[in-house]
Structure formats: structure tokens, C-alpha cells
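#struct-pred
JK: can someone run the complex with 2-oxoglutaric acid? inputs below
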Amino acid sequence: MALPQPTRVGRGAESYLHFPSLLSAKDLSVVLDHVNGGEVQGAIEEGILFTDVGANRDRNSKVSWLERPSTADEDDPTVPEWLHTRLRKAAAATHTRYGDKLCPVGIDKLGRWTPKYEPIQYTEYPAGSHYGAWHTDGDVDEVDPEDTRSVTIVVLLASPGEDFEGGHFEVEIKGKKSRVKLQAGDAIGFPAKRLYHRVTKITSGLRRSMVFWVSRPGKDLPARYGAEAEAAAAADKAKAKAKAKAKSAKTKQKAMQPAAQEGTVKRQRR
Ligand SMILES: O=C(O)CCC(=O)C(=O)O
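RT: done, C-alpha cells with the ligand placed:
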């Protein structure tokens, strides 16, 4: 299936591509059958938030991780191959549109892109749920493994006004907050670390979505969340301070060294 032509909303890094009907009604019913199955439902867990300031205050939703297809076995519980391909195509189109500076996926010695694909996040928001915290999907400072994320694709799997009420996907562009009008099957793509977004509270029904992230191959960054993150940040700060102190002591020592000693070093090298 050819990818629907996306519309770009906004300019620069803080903008997004809207893909109308990335999934057709028929595709949606296949995906919903899949996510309603025992494998996906059995693995549903609480979605975590790395900087949570209070239980469920910033995010309160359920997630299950959909592995990419690994075999041709019909009983394989992984996502249908075509779905993964479709999301990859949307991500590739987003990468092309924004360029590798805003969406870095890495490049090998032969000049080929080297993107990495995370399992797809399937998300459920029953009434009362939300992802109310304004967030990006990674930090430009790159301290956690998630910070290698480059491209985000969000697909809405439920019909607003029919399957659920509330649950608006909102974005902040140049300080201005707005709602993204999405229908079931629509997707949006954006630079993962640049666009602030959130999902407001679902007032009734069940909102479902999928989120797909493409990353660049990353350093093995430690996962640092909550109190652990604060402790690690304090340790980093202390380490940086000690390093700066040692450097300054070394510089002072060097400035005080007699010229003759420098000469000695030079002579020894010859
Ligand atoms: O469910 C959505 O529409 C988006 C969820 C989201 O922003 C996230 O999981 O990071």
C-alpha cells in the first residue's frame, strides 16, 4: 500500500506530519483483533514515566509491547509484518522530511542509514486515564537509553466521539498549545526529542493508540529514573566538580613549574 501523503503542520523542529488513514478501516480491525488477543492483553502493564512526580499524576495509562515479527509462523504472537512495515515507512518519510540533524538515525561506513526499531507500544486509556504531562520522547542531553530516539509515530486506534470522549492529543508549538484532530487510523510523525505533546484525560470509553519509535544506534546509557536519576545526577555533578578542581590544580601547578623543568622534559624526548 502506498503511504498516504502527509501534511506538515508547523515549521522547523516543533512541528509534525499528519498521515491521514495510515491504517484503513480493514487494517484497523486486524490490528484491534491482534491487540485484543491474549498475548497482548496478558502482557499489559502500567505505563511508566521517567520523571514521575507522584503516582499516576503525570501519566496514567496501560501499555503492552508488540515485538516486531520474527517468524512466518501463524501462531507467532508478534505484530503482523505489514503493520511493522507500514510504521517503518511512515518513520522513514518523517526522517526524510526533517533530515538527519533533527532525526538522527546514524549512518554506516557505506553511507547507509542505520535506524533501530523499538517494539511498538500499544497503549490503552480507559476513562480517567491520561498522559497529562507535557513531554518529549527523549532528552537532547542524552542521559537515558530512550534519549537515542529520533522519530516518533503515533497512531490513533479508536474513534473520538464514538469509542471515547476527551483524550485529546495536544502539542506545543512555539509556546502555543493546540489540539491535533485525529481520526481512527490517522498517524502523526515528528522528531522524538523536539515536539512537546500530551494526552488529556479520557472522560468516557476507551482510547487506544500505538507509538513507534525509531532510534539511532546508541551508547549503552544506564537507565536512570526517579530517585535513582536524582542520585545519579548528584554523583555526576560531584564527579564533574572534582574533575574541574583537579584540572584547575594541574593548570596552577604547570604555571608554577620552572622553565628548566620544561626544558628537561623536552631534552628527554629527543
Ligand atoms: O497515546 C498517545 O496518543 C501518545 C502517547 C505518548 O505520548 C507516549 O506514549 O509518549
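RT: quick notes.
The radius of gyration is 24 Å.
The CA atoms of residues 152 and 213 lie 5 Å apart.
JK: thanks, will look after standup
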